[in-house]
Design brief:
- Its main location: cytoplasm.
- This is Beta-ketoacyl-[acyl-carrier-protein] synthase III.
- Homodimer.
- By secondary structure, the chain is α+β, with helices and mostly antiparallel strands.
- It folds into two domains: 169 residues, 3-Layer(aba) Sandwich (Peroxisomal Thiolase, Chain A, domain 1), CATH 3.40.47.10; 147 residues, Peroxisomal Thiolase, Chain A, domain 1, CATH 3.40.47.
- It is built from ten helices and 14 strands.
- The strands form four sheets. The chain has a five-stranded mixed β-sheet, with helices on both faces. The protein has a five-stranded mixed β-sheet with strand order 2-8-7-5-6, sandwiched between helices.
- Helix 4 links the parallel strand 5 and strand 6.
- Helix 3 crosses helix 4 and helix 7 packs parallel to helix 8.
- Bound molecules: oxa(dethia)-CoA.
- Oxa(dethia)-CoA (UT7) binds next to helix 2, helix 6, helix 7 and strand 13.
Length: 339
Amino acid sequence: MADHIVMHCMIDRVSVLCGVGGYVPSSVVTNADLAGRFDTSDEWIRSRTGIRQRHVVRTGESTGDLAVQAGAAALKNAGVDSVDLVVLATTTPDHPCPATAPAVARGLGLDHVAAFDLGAVCTGFVYGLAAVAGFIAAGLAERVLLIGADTFSTILDPADRGAAAVFGDGAGAVVLRRGDAGELGALLAFDLGSDGDFVDLITVRAGGSKHPLTAGQVPDDHWFSMQGKAVYRHAVRRMAASAQDVLRQVGWRAQDVDWFVGHQANQRILHAVGDQVGIAPERVFVNIDQVGNTVAASIPLALTDATGVLRPGDKVLLTAFGGGITWGSAALIWPALPD
Ligand code: UT7
């Protein structure tokens, strides 16, 4: 069986983006705060990643709590109070079982709608866009709330200064509805891929069915771990190739892209991908300085923060990379959204 999966799709009955919203917890951790806890510095973190601060949850505040806030903001932005489906992309659900999406739907007053979680780590939101587009194209849903939310501060090794510098907590959401390819907001093409050979690059090794936690034992490898350098190299290569693939499908040249809104893993990765694809640095949207790497929340939070610069009709390219390893891209025309 092939260990490398690449899926391409073009859709006739398209999904149209009609609302965005984001939420970050109020507690902020600056680089100076981290320098007080670890052998690190603001200069090291900023020069390697572009990050200045990140938000983290307080004890008792969960991924589901953030998702409800972001979902409410997106529904308000779309001017709707009902959907047929809630999809939550996350790697840090409220519980290993059940999925968090039903509780989030309940928290939003969306009782009895279909609701499920989707896991593709930092690529989860782009996978979610494609999955929702599939539901809508198949006639299984007319309007969907897609949320990306993660609280990596709850799974980081307290001794890992690299991860503490990179990751932040947050949630972002979009509302998608059935529409036509010619409409503002239309999602026009997707590229999705994975390579399970590199499962160990980004992992929480213990705590699943392969390495279950046993009573009385808490192994060291139940924390999140990332092989940063190897991930960096894969991220640049896979994101650039995925972006180019989706541009080819939709018939845009790199210079046609008004905004590249990529997964905010590292500012240097975003600019390296822009460089390889041929997108000028001023067309690369960056908010990692304020929020860090928020995993599945990264792209919808960036879209929310970019609403001031994105103009209706802009050609927008979304590209992500994450654990699995996984990668994915989507091309869309930016809609006219209320402020
Ligand atoms: O979202 C999913 C995708 N994730 C990514 O795409 C992340 C990709 N990777 C990265 O962004 C980078 O690899 C990091 C920002 C995570 C790390 O940067 P790096 O330049 O690859 O550093 P490194 O891990 O290779 O470490 C280089 C040095 C090491 O010291 P020695 O062995 O050279 O003496 C580390 O111990 O930097 C040290 N180091 C730190 N120093 C100060 C690692 N973390 C820190 C820190 N402060 N926070």
